[in-house]
Amino acid sequence: MDFFYGGLTAETFWIAALVTLFAGFVKGAIGFAMPLIMMAVFASIMPPQLALAGLILSVLTTNLHQSLRDGWPAFRESAWGYRRLIGATIIGIAISAPFVVYIPARLLLGLLGLPVALFALYQLSGRPMKIALRHRNRAEYVLGLIAGLYGGLAGIWGPPVVIYLLSIAADKKETVRVQGVIFLIGGTVLAAAHLGTGILNEVTLPFSVALVIPAFAGMLAGFRLQDRLDPVKFRRWTLILLALTALNLLRKSIFG
């Protein structure tokens, strides 16, 4: 078993596995936030490079499964139907990634966290914000580009995507599937990049592989809850999780 510990003690490894199990459950139920939950805890119990390596394969494999849960035709339909959002996200990542060393991470987290928190709390107050059909194409480009710019700089592109899906009132299955498609693309880029940087190496790769098991176990349990949630409750819990995610980004921005 030591081979899979990544240099951690057995106790710390099992804590990481339990955190991953919970993060996978949340992802299965709502569709996002797994890496944010994992990093929030991992950063306090292990070196940052190992923390990042630990989540990479879990993010990649769970999003592959999430995006293909309804079959290849549904995956293809979502990828084509949201091609503007996906394309703009990729372009945003390509534009911003070279500037990551020049912009303070705490500033970025604050600039993302504040508007996302305001959006989620406003929606939770019972005043829905919807994008008119005639503006959808433009909104896909704008929010996709914003998601990509933040993804390239801070590794976080989920909240703008979730905001768009909530604003067009996408149904539950479509919301989760589209998130999976977009996060799969990001996870693939992340994994490829860090095979090159050395973050994924002979020590950290087995650790990352080991965490795939609790990630999947949690996600499969979360799917059961997702299937039972009616659309109103699903939307509400998505907004609650989005608000908590944004508030955590603000916390990191202010306190580091």
Automatic annotation (TrEMBL):
Q: Which InterPro entries match?
A: TM_pro_TauE-like, TSUP
Q: Where are the transmembrane segments?
A: 12-30, 37-60, 80-100, 107-125, 145-166, 178-199, 205-225
Instruction: Look up the signal peptide feature and give its range.
Output: none
Q: Which UniProt keywords apply?
A: Cell membrane, Membrane, Transmembrane, Transmembrane helix, Transport
Tell me which GO cellular component terms the UniProt record holds. plasma membrane
Places the protein is found = Cell membrane
Q: How does it sit in the membrane?
A: Multi-pass membrane protein
The record, for Pfam families, names: TauE
Say if the entry is tagged with keyword rRNA-binding.
no
**UniProt superkingdom:** Bacteria
PANTHER family, from UniProt?
MEMBRANE TRANSPORTER PROTEIN-RELATED (PTHR30269:SF32), TRANSMEMBRANE PROTEIN YFCA (PTHR30269)
> Which family is this sequence assigned to?
Belongs to the 4-toluene sulfonate uptake permease (TSUP) (TC 2.A.102) family.
Q: What is the protein named?
A: Probable membrane transporter protein
According to its UniProt entry, this protein's organism is Falsigemmobacter faecalis
